[in-house]
Amino acid sequence: MFTGLVEVLGRVDRVVEEEVGRRFALRWPGLDPGEPMAMGESVAVNGCCLTVVALDGEAFEVQAGPETLLRTNLGSLEAGDAVNLERSLRVGDRLGGHFVQGHVDATAELVERRPEGEWDFLRFRIDPRWTPLMVEKGSIAVDGVSLTLVDVGGDWFSIMLIPHTLAVTTLGTRRAGDRVNIEADMLAKHVQKLVGGG
Fold first, then answer.
1. 98 domain-assigned
2. What is its EC number (predicted)?
């Protein structure tokens, strides 16, 4: 479980193609030596929950299988790319974002970006089967970042980014045509199923 509050902008050191997936060597700059990573720990990488399978100080490795690569943008990552990183929520931590599982539902394409003062407006196109789970002023995770929806259409949604989010996450450098990982609000998914909507 995560909050969608990105802790650090990490970096991909290396990508290794495996038989049925990919292995990523990642770096967490400034990782507190008093709270090192642990083998088997869950880490959200661009909002996708992955397991630490090797580690060495600030460097650690995770693996992504076929289903993960199919549903996320991790298949397009290359060495040198920036990634949003968040460690899993501990009992007693503040929940400043919203409940994020790290189970990416789909990807969306950034189709419009414009500055509005110090903020940026972003509009994304997504498979229309996901927009019924989105509501104006509701929560969404975009590349693992907990955000508030501005507007929602049949096959699109929009968000506004404050300067802090622009500075400390990958969303600050996303351009039109880029794909981002989307996790719809898990409460909306449960309600939809309970009322017979899918």
1. no
2. 2.5.1.9
Domains in the chain: how many in total?
Answer: 2
Task: Tell me the per-residue pLDDT of 63-99, one tens digit each, with 9 for 90 and over.
Answer: 999 999 999 999 999 999 999 999 998 877 777 778 8
Report the 10 Å Cβ neighbour count for 130. Answer: 20
CATH number at residue 68: 2.40.30.20
Cβ atoms of 63 and 23 closer than 8 Å: yes
Q: For 119-168, what is each residue's pLDDT tens digit?
A: 999 999 999 999 999 999 999 999 999 999 999 999 999 999 999 999 99
SS3 86: strand
Which residue, among 31, 37, 32, 97, has the nearest Cα to 62 in the 3D structure?
A: 37
Which domain, by its residues, includes 45?
8-87
Q: Residue 44 forms beta bridges with which residues? A: 49, 86
Type of residue at 131: T
pTM passes above 0.85: yes
Q: For residue 25, how many C-alpha atoms fall within 13 Å in the half-sphere facing its CB?
A: 10
| Residues 46, 24: Cα–Cα separation, whole Å | 13
174 belongs to a structural domain = yes
Same domain, 22 and 75: yes
CB-CB neighbours of 27 under 10 Å = 17
- Tell me: do 112 and 163 sit in the same domain: yes
